[in-house]
Structure formats: C-alpha cells, structure tokens
Design brief:
Layout: E1 11-20, H1 38-53, H2 58-69, E2 78-83, E3 100-105, E4 108-113, H3 114-118, E5 123-126, E6 131-134, E7 144-152, H4 157-170, E8 184-185, E9 210-212, H5 221-237, H6 246-251, E10 256-257, E11 260-261, E12 271-277, E13 283-289, H7 300-318
Antiparallel strand pairs: 1-7, 1-8, 2-7, 3-4, 5-6, 9-13, 10-11, 12-13
Helix pairs in contact: 1-4, 5-7
Length: 322
C-alpha cells in the first residue's frame, strides 16, 4: 500500500479543548434533537468572520468567503473536526430556573424565571404539569469535547483563528445563542473585542461596539445568565410603558406577545448575552452591543436613540461607572 506524505505537507493543526458553559441547543436534521455538528459550528464561525473582516462590497466578501469557507466550485482553506464527544451527550431535561422576577398580567402579579424567558421557544407551557417543559434536547453545561482546526498552506489562518476566538469569547453555538445559551470556553482563546471602523449594514464590529462586563461573578452558570438576562430585560422594558411596543420593536423584531407574533417584520437584536468561566471556576456574564445599519432611513435615529437608552440602563443596573 502506497503512502503519499506529500498530501500532508503545508498542513498545520491546532487543537482546542472545549467546555460547554451554558446549555447548548445545537440541532441537526431533527430540530428537537441536540448534536454537535461541523456545519453548524462552521456556520457560526462564518458569522463571526463577517463581524471581524466583512466588507460592504458584498461581491468581494462572498469571494473572500468562498476562498476561506469553500463553495460548490472550490474546497475550503481549512477543515474543522469534532473529537472526543463521549462526554457531550444530549439530554431532554428541564433547566434550573435561576433568578425569578415579578411580572403582572391581567391584574395578577407572579414570578417568572429569567432562564425560561431567555429560552423562549425551547420550552412550552404544559397544562397538565402547570409549568414550562423543555421540548428540545440540549447538551448540558460542563460537557466537554475537542475541536481540531487544520489549515492548508496557512491561507487566512490568522483570520480563521481570530474568528474562532471571538466566537468563543463573545458568541455561542445553537439556538438562543444571542440570549447566552451555547456559551463555550477554551483556555487557548483569549482575544479582545474590536471597536473600530464604520458601522456596516449587517452585524459587525465597529466604533459603536461596546462591551458591558462589570457583572458580579457567580458560582453557577444559571445565576450568571440570570443576572445579565434580568438586566437586559429590565433595560429593554424601560424604553416604554407596558403594552406599548414602538421602541422595543426598534431593538428587535418580531415581538412575541401573549404567545403570538405581534410584529411580523424581522431583524436581530444588536445585543449578545454571554457567560464566561473564570480561572477560579466562577461564572461571569457580559453583554456585547454590536449595532448595525438595519434602518437605512426613517427610523434610523429612533433606533440608535432606543439603543442608547438601553445601554445607559445596562450601565446603571450593572454598576459600571463609565
């Protein structure tokens, strides 16, 4: 049997030991099942590459993406492999409720779980048990696996690595990743956030980017996620009176009110909730604000005014003195 060593020339591998910090709802062909999938992780990596290196020249950006991530006509400049998944098994189970906050409906005051608020759509109210039941599997916090990146001829290697590190430090994998689920950690992934350059028409780092990180470290992930979820919810609700949805709809659409879609238009919120695991084992939440020019005209000024109002409230509630 012949062995062609030349096939492996110019290939460099880097291994990352990954720990799941908050429950990961990463689906496959069956949306209710959870599994670690290369295409899903590469899709998240592509998103963060755009956030770091994307261009307003869409033709040029697509050409660069094809060179890095591949296309029908060409192979990707790197490969991503998932290994050692025996400690990352999916389960169908309820999550801790974390912090509960009071809310009022139809003249009645009761408490809701911030974790369930952030996980809307992943759990549903069950009339038999009279509580929310999770209907989608997840891979639990504390699970571990390995990601191997292989680079061919070092093409765009630094861009790929930086995008991967930004994904780990500010983003997440799977459903509700902007709400803090699917946060992951790796010891080899330290990187700062980028607040330079002009704002783009899609989600990307710019001079407007801000990181809110002055939150209290917690012993449990659910307490850290609850804290930033509570702050974000209160800051957004502070925009206007209850049952009024003009300013809140500027931040993100659609809005779900009483289980129904209140506003049919769609655009993603510019806030990314994330939980880090510190060196001492504690968990600390953070909120990344990364706005983009969704509104070309008309409501553009109202959009940024609403975002600034939310930002000021986040600063106030987090105890950040900036």
């Amino acid at each position: 049997m012949s062995f062609y060593i030349s096939r492996f020339k110019g290939i460099e591998s880097q291994n990352f030991d990954i720990e799941i910090i908050t429950p990961l709802f990463l689906g496959g062909a069956d949306p209710k099942k959870a599994e670690l999938r290369v295409p899903s992780i590469k899709g998240a990596l592509r998103f963060w590459w755009r956030a770091l290196y994307g261009s307003e020249n869409l033709a040029d950006m697509k050409s660069q993406e094809a060179e890095i991530f591949g296309s029908i006509a060409k192979k990707a400049s790197f490969s991503l492999h998932i290994k050692d998944t025996q400690n990352a098994n999916s389960v169908l189970a309820d999550l801790p409720q974390g912090i509960k906050v009071p809310t009022t409906s139809k003249g009645r005051t009761f408490k809701i779980s911030i974790i369930e608020y952030l996980a809307y759509g992943l759990c549903e109210y069950n009339k038999q048990f009279k509580r929310n039941i999770y209907v989608k599997e997840h891979i639990p916090a504390g699970s571990r696996f390995k990601i191997v990146l292989r680079f061919y001829d070092n093409f765009k290697k630094d861009e790929i690595l930086n995008s991967f590190k930004v994904l780990i430090n500010f983003g997440g994998l799977g459903s509700r990743s902007r709400n803090g689920f699917g946060s992951i950690s790796s010891k080899k992934s330290s990187i700062g956030y980028k607040n330079e350059g002009t704002m783009k028409s899609y989600t990307a780092f710019s001079e407007m980017t801000k990181l809110f990180e002055k939150f209290t470290p917690k012993d449990k992930w659910e307490d850290a996620l609850s804290e930033i979820g509570k702050v974000y919810r209160k800051a957004r609700n502070n925009l206007e009176n209850k049952h009024v949805f003009e300013k809140r709809s500027l931040i993100a659409k659609p809005l779900i009110v009483k289980g129904e879609v209140n506003i049919n238009d769609r655009h993603s919120k510019p806030y990314f909730l994330h939980v880090n695991k510190l060196h001492d084992g504690k968990h600390q939440g953070q909120i990344l604000y990364m706005p983009y020019n969704y509104y070309k005209q008309g409501k553009r000024e109202e959009y940024f005014q609403a975002c600034e109002q939310v930002n000021q409230k986040i600063l106030e509630l987090s105890g950040d003195s900036r």
